[in-house]
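Hey team,

Filing this mostly as a record. A colleague (T.K.) asked me to run one chain through the structure pipeline before their review meeting, and I want the input and output archived in the tracker in case anyone asks later how it was produced. No errors, nothing strange. Just documentation.

Input sequence:
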Amino acid sequence: MPKKITNTLEFELYNSFEKLSQQDQELMLGARNACNTAYAPYSNFRVGAALLLANGQMVFGSNQENAAYPSGLCAERVAFFSCSVQQPDERILKVAVTATRAGSGIFLMASPCGGCRQVMLEYEHKQQQPIEIILQWGEQQYIKAGSIAGLLPFSFNMDSLISST
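Output structure:
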C-alpha cells in the first residue's frame, strides 16, 4: 500500500489591518512603501517586500523588471539578497509582501512565485529557524503563516545535495 504524505499550511487570516500586531502593521507598511520603488513599466504590477531582522532593523525590496525577460527580479528576492549582503549574520524573523497596480492605490493579493518561495526557504533552512510570512490578500485581508516551508511542499534544499552514502 502506498504511503500517504500530508503537507498542510497552517495560517491565520486577518480581516483588517488593525487586527495585525503593531510590529506586523509596521512591517506591512514597509512592504507597501517598497511598492513605490518598484520598476515595473511592463506589467504595472508593483510588489513590495519588507524583512524584519532579529536586531529590529528592516530591509526592503521591490520588483525590478527588464525589457530582456526574465532578467528582472522579484521583490522578495531583492529583499532577501540585499539582506544577505548588508547584514549577512543577522537572522530574518518575518517577511511581509504586498502588491498594487501602478496608479491604482489599491492593494492586491500578493503571493510569492515559486522561485521566491525557493529562495526564502533557503534562508529559513540556512538559519535553522522559521521565517514568518505575512501576505496582503486583497485590500483588507492578510494571511500570516509561521514558516516559509509550508508554502513549498517537496522543496529542494542543501540536504538534497548531500550524498547519503
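Quick notes for T.K.: The chain has three helices and seven strands. The mean pLDDT is 92.
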